[in-house]
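Bumping with the actual sequence this time:
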Amino acid sequence: MAHVKVKIYTTPTCPWCRRAKEYFKQLGIPFTEVDVSRDRKGAEEMIRKSGQMGVPVIEIGNQIIVGFDKARIDRILGIS
């Protein structure tokens, strides 16, 4: 698997955000976390990229995933 940049937009109270972060940790893939409840610029960036305000929003390279869609994450990462 090639090195890919991953960014996860989260809030502290979001259970799906925790699951997404745990999944990337299990895979050994580093990610940048943006807490949109504290980071206004990060929240604006997330809305611009995803078109909505719900979390998690996961950015893998230039792909945007709204929600913790494990099957789509695996597909983008080339995991079967």
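The tokens above came from a reply further down the thread. The chain is about 40% helix and 20% strand.
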